[in-house]
Amino acid sequence: MTAPLPRHDHYIAGSWVPPAAGTYLPSVNPATGAVWYETARGDAEDARRAVEAAAAAFSDPAWRDLPQPRRGALLRRVAELIGEHAEELARTETLDNGKLLTEMRAQLASLPEYFHFYAGLADKPHGQTVPAARREILNYTVREPLGVVVAITPWNSPLLLTATKIAPALAAGNTVVVKPSEHTSASLLGLVPLFEKAGFPPGVVNVVTGYGDEIGGPLTEDPRVAKVSFTGSTATGSRIAASCASRFVRTTLELGGKSPNIVFDDANVADAATGVVAGVFAAAGQTCVAGSRVFAHRAVYDEVVERVADKARSIRLGDPLDPGTQLGPLAIESQRDRVEEYVRLGRSEGARIVTGGQRPDAGSGLADGFYYRPTVFVDAANTMRLCQEEIFGPVVAIMPFDTEDELVALANGTEYGLAAGVWTRDLARAHRVSARLDAGTVWVNTYRSMSPMSPRSGFKSSGMGIEHGTEAMDEYTRLKSVWINTDEGPADDPFVLRS
Predict the structure, then answer these.
(1) Which of 93, 103, 254, 390 is catalytic?
(2) What is the number of helices (H) and of strands (E) in the chain?
(3) pLDDT tens, position by position, 405-460
(4) Is residue 416 classed as helix, strand or coil in its secondary structure?
(5) Within 13 Å, how many C-alpha atoms sit on residue 382's CB side?
(6) Residue from 103, 221, 244, 288 carrying the catalytic annotation
(7) Would you call 103 a catalytic residue per the annotation?
(8) Threshold 0.70, pTM exceeds
(9) CB 79 within 8 A of CB 112
(10) What are phi and psi of 476, to 5 degrees?
């Protein structure tokens, strides 16, 4: 008899709660194609219960009246607990979305930094005193938490992207309901009990799982929700923004990207080629900042193509738990199908593949997983769909340019504006080009560097609002102005406005 699969319920108000409808979703290990657990299939009733728990916790003096330094102490304790459970959390996420265990170990080593950073900011949302025209008037400002925050995270980096949202939200004094991707819920469900273990009151952090249209929609539309923070596709982000705007609900949206990675003729081409490969093939290309459009100056174009293609051919595909593996599977089967469709489209548009463009061979031992070989296109035009639409997979197009002005027009010639890379030895050019690129983040002679201290934002269709940095605290607070008349006597004229 086959043993029953592990089953995960919602986490609401500090307890494991089965789905209201009693139904569960299968979750597949992308390295093997086999179902390895089931998670609750939430609906509107589950969304209501989670928001109700978060709203009650927000009003409860146990959280509402908790001194701000104490909130910081709780976040520091969460950081310590994450460190203690790092290996377990890393392995769970690798099994869930196919990320390399070596990458996840490094990510879990840095994850506590997000909670430590915002723990340090928990007692620093200082207000100001504002000079008034009369000495009897005291005017000051205070920053207050918003209330219930809904955080919706994608399948490519569940733990990291959740941390970037809930760490500042909690530091500011909000309560949260997290809805992870229905494909990758296990690592977050492993993380959430650590908050109560750290001392957070029940209901401050809640997790509900299921499909976006069945539970995500009811969460974002609940009138008790004060803010929605979403990371995912531009199309879904647009719908969330429209719904929230109609009710004046704040949003932070980190959406799609089609980021340019630019190699000038004076660059260290060997370093640049390594940066190109890391920028687009890390995490099997499943990062919103993937440098999937490479522009190389014509003087070094052939060398860039040769070096990138050689590196792509040598990348070792395999089990993401194996420390020797360099590229794991796509997280879900439908994403592998999407990558294949874009490769077919690129060929039909006239672009040429110099390496990759197929699944691993049947005899590779990888046929059951959702693997796809690193793929390099040349002879592509920036106007092709291959170069305009986010693929979210291990596919890159390398295109030549001649002048700086031409390069800037090409790099900015997309609806997205999330990130960009520049490879050059010319410091003046680095500053000049960085200023002209429509990108919320520009890396020079590096790619995918990240820190909780540095703000991230997207331009154009890549989103709105700020994550990371001290600026993120403003995203989770509201500003109140308080006026106090210290003069006990009546106003000279009650019908005359006085400042």
Answers:
(1) 254
(2) 17, 25
(3) 999 999 999 999 999 999 999 999 999 999 999 999 999 999 999 999 999 999 99
(4) strand
(5) 20
(6) 288
(7) no
(8) yes
(9) yes
(10) -115, 15
